[in-house]
# Entry
Amino acid sequence: MKIIINGIHANLRFSSAHMIPCHEFCGGIHGHSYHVDVKVEGERGGPFGFVVDFKTVKSIVRDLCKILDHKLLLPEKSKEIDFKSKGESLEFAIGDKEYKIPREDCYLLPLSSTSAEDMAEYFAEQLFQALLQEEADIKSVGICVNEGIGQGAYFEKTVE
Ligand SMILES: [Zn+2]
# Structure
């Protein structure tokens, strides 16, 4: 069985800035009001016959959103971003564009890009790892990271 959580209604949201380096339209810093839809598939169990408690899943995903909220999201493993300093300010270059932004205004993600696709993989992996700590029999975790209403990337992480 699957439980499904709608990110808009369950308030799994964050507003952040990012850029897609070297992309014609998305290469400049811009923002999205993201929301994150969640599916968790598993066996029903425990005293209440839950797949996993909605509250547990929402709390984990909300915490992940909170970390990213009102930050400039930067992909630490980007091939296009040349990080020169990661001190109090993040100094980096993308081609001949140079940036210097206070560290506290940024969040570095262990990703090669902050596309919706990469963010969906990130959320799915983080949620999956967090749910391993719970006493639930989980088969898969599906995440849709929406860049506003009407477009998002969906990734499903399945137990091997
Ligand atoms: Zn964007």
The chain is about 20% helix and 40% strand. The radius of gyration is 17 Å. The chain has a mean pLDDT of 96. The chain has one domain: 2-74+109-158.
